[in-house]
Amino acid sequence: MSYHVNEKGYYGDFGGAYIPEMLYPNVQELQQQYKRITATAEFKKSFDDLLKDYVGRPTPLYFAQRLSEKYQTKLYLKREDLCHTGAHKVNNTIGQILLAKALGKNRIIAETGAGQHGVATATVCALMGIQCVVYMGAVDIQRQAPNVARMKMLGAEVRPAQSGSKTLKDATNEAIRDWINNPVDTHYIIGSVVGPHPYPDMVARFQSVISEEIQQQLREKEGRDYPDHLIACVGGGSNAAGAYYHYLDNPKVNIIAVEAAGIGIDTGASAATSVLGKEGIIHGSKTLLMQTPDGQIIEPYSISAGLDYPGVGPMHAHLFRSGRAEFIAATDDEAMTAGLTLSQLEGIIPAIETAHAFAILEHRPFQPDEVVVINLSGRGDKDLNTYIDYFKL
Ligand SMILES: *Cc1c(COP(=O)(O)O)cnc(C)c1O
Q1: Cα–Cα distance list, 136 to 127, 196, 228, 328 (Å)
Q2: Which of 38, 59, 97, 309 could connect to 124 by a Cys-Cys bridge, CB 3.0–4.6 Å?
Q3: Residue 2 designated active-site
């Protein structure tokens, strides 16, 4: 049994492409072309060169001495926080902009919630000299002013979504509407392992450079290419998918996914999508999502803007349902404390999303001789104000 996507775009019961008929041509073009284009020597060379010289890969696998002493196990941190733009998201946008160019597209659209994916998209559009339109909920534009400024500085147009709750799902609806109206010249860069097939698989493949590097780095440091435990935080699931990718079918590796429990799983204010979710369709794929008994999407909550997505990618829904991965939820308070601990023990200020992955160390013990890798998905500069308010620094 494999945990990778099948020919039809499914991970077990989850995935597929549930889209309006108007989107068929765009999505079908991608389904038919993405594997062929990304397998060409020309694509691979451009992708590898940019990841190396522009993004700064390979990112280090760092043995965290003091954190390991505190938690009595061997902890390695995969330093995606050192990527250009401060997180893993740029691995995906580099891949998709090269794909868009190969498909002859000269205009890019994207959706963004907290603005991190918008910034990563605006960055690669500037790099390639391609027009960029980012849809963002009007409420999010108010809340995330620094990222809006970054996108504008990079030359992107930020269009406010004024419908519904004026947040991420409304921005996504606007982006889809734009794509329907501009099917020929426009590519839609989705920011996580969500959306209709082939997006979840395509994004996972671009992010899989993370686990490819971990294999090589562990071989050098530990004499074997796999860890005993592999931990990542999950919003839509892209940094986790990249960290898991080459280990999905290796039963020796215990995969751990950390979701945001917000104020607490049972409080109604959380983003613990897998545990609380029911089967449903969101943004073009069948997955687990938080919904009312009559199928209305429940607004998620987390102190970290990058984790409060009401659904989770179909790969992760399958990892949860099949029992392949261990799912743990961390609260706002646990994550904030873990962020402070990592800062003061290792001199690394993590993104609050990332801090959720570290929070489980308090409750989930590991053996002293076990090798544990945590994907350090991003840095905390963007979250300084939240940390300052929370700790009254
Ligand atoms: C966006 C983001 C996440 C959540 O997105 P995934 O697709 O689940 O990876 C996690 N960490 C950081 C630093 C982010 O910017």
Answers
A1: 22, 20, 40, 30
A2: 97
A3: no
| 166 belongs to the catalytic site | no
- Residue 302 designated active-site: no
Residue pLDDT, tens place only, 114-161: 999 999 999 999 999 999 999 999 999 998 899 999 999 999 999 999
Contacts of 233 (CB under 8 A, 6+ apart): 239, 240, 257, 258, 259, 260, 307, 353, 354, 356, 357, 375, 377
Q: Contact 101/38 with Cβ under 8 angstroms?
A: no
Instruction: Kindly list the structural domains of the chain, giving each domain's residue range(s) and its CATH number in brackets, ordered by start.
Output: 56-86+208-391 (3.40.50.1100), 89-203 (3.40.50.1100)
Q: DSSP letters along 158-209, please? A: EEEE-STTSSHHHHHHHHHHHHHH-TTTEEEE--SS-SSTTHHHHHHHHHTH
Q: Taking a C-beta distance cutoff of 8 angstroms, is the pair 378, 84 a contact?
A: no
Neighbours of 3 (CB within 10 A): 19
- Answer yes or no: is pLDDT of 164 > 90: no
Residue-wise pLDDT for 23-50, tens only, equals: 999 999 999 999 999 999 999 999 999 9
pLDDT in tens, 215-238: 999 999 999 999 999 999 999 999
Q: For tokens 């740029």, what's the residue? A: 90
What is the 299 CA–ligand 1 centroid distance (Å)? 18
- Smallest Cα–Cα separation from 338: which of 260, 253, 243? 260
| Nearest ligand 1 atom to alpha carbon 240 | 9
pLDDT digits (tens, 9 = 90+) for 307-332: 888 889 999 999 999 999 999 999 99
Ligand 1 pocket, Cβ-based, cut-off 6 angstroms: 87, 89, 116, 192, 233-240, 306-307, 351, 353-354, 377-378
